[in-house]
Amino acid sequence: MPSVLFVCLGNSVLKLGNICRSPMAEAVFADYVKKLNLNFTIDSCGTAGYHVGENPDSRSAAECRRNGVAVNHKARQLTKSDFTNFDYILVMDHDNKTDVQRVKPQNSTAKIFLFGEFDPENDLVISDPYYGGRDGFEKNFRQVTRCSEGFIKYLQQNKEI
């Protein structure tokens, strides 16, 4: 089965990272593949080392729990080995993709996509909900759920699962 790494960075000015979007995407995708009886390696990280070792934002975790999805994650930073340890690196927005491509080593084997590229509603960017209210986290949850389903369809169509 493929291995998947979800990547975000909230805000480099306020030093936020790997606490909202990517842990939610990791949790939702893990829940989805578990229901399908698939076995993936799944993780998430930030493009910078902010919040390393911390739990996800309480609002992100609460939205997952409200929807019956368990969250079990500690923030970490993207590493060079992630580019060979994971088959797919799925980023939350265009800035994340630029940052990931900028540090990608030459020996990278990972395929890098916006996670939103798999959204059947074509909502490419999974926006950072940190500065808003609950509705931003609800929107993210719906979006990463759609993207998870779309990504699985993509893997099935490409005979990777």
Secondary structure layout:
Elements (H helix, E strand, L loop, with lengths): L2 E6 L12 H15 L5 E6 L11 H9 L15 H4 L2 E4 L2 H10 L7 E4 L19 H24 L4
Parallel strand pairs: 1-2, 1-3, 3-4
Subcellular location: Cytoplasm
Pfam families: LMWPc
Organism: Boothiomyces macroporosus
Order of helices and strands: EHEHHEHEH
- Total helix count? 5
> What is CATH's topology name?
Rossmann fold
Rg from alpha-carbon coordinates: 14 Å
User: CATH homologous superfamily?
Assistant: Response regulator
- Extended strand count: 4
Shape: globular
The pLDDT mean sits at 92
Give a structural overview.
It is found in: Cytoplasm. This protein is an alpha/beta fold. It contains five helices and four strands; from the N terminus they run E-H-E-H-H-E-H-E-H. It has a single domain (3-157), classed as Response regulator (Rossmann fold), CATH 3.40.50.2300. The relative contact order is 0.21. The model has no long low-confidence stretch (mean pLDDT 92).
Keywords, please?
161 residues, alpha/beta, Rossmann fold, 4-stranded parallel β-sheet, 39% helix, globular, protein phosphatase, non-membrane spanning protein tyrosine phosphatase activity, hydrolase, Tyr_Pase_low_mol_wt_mml, acid phosphatase activity
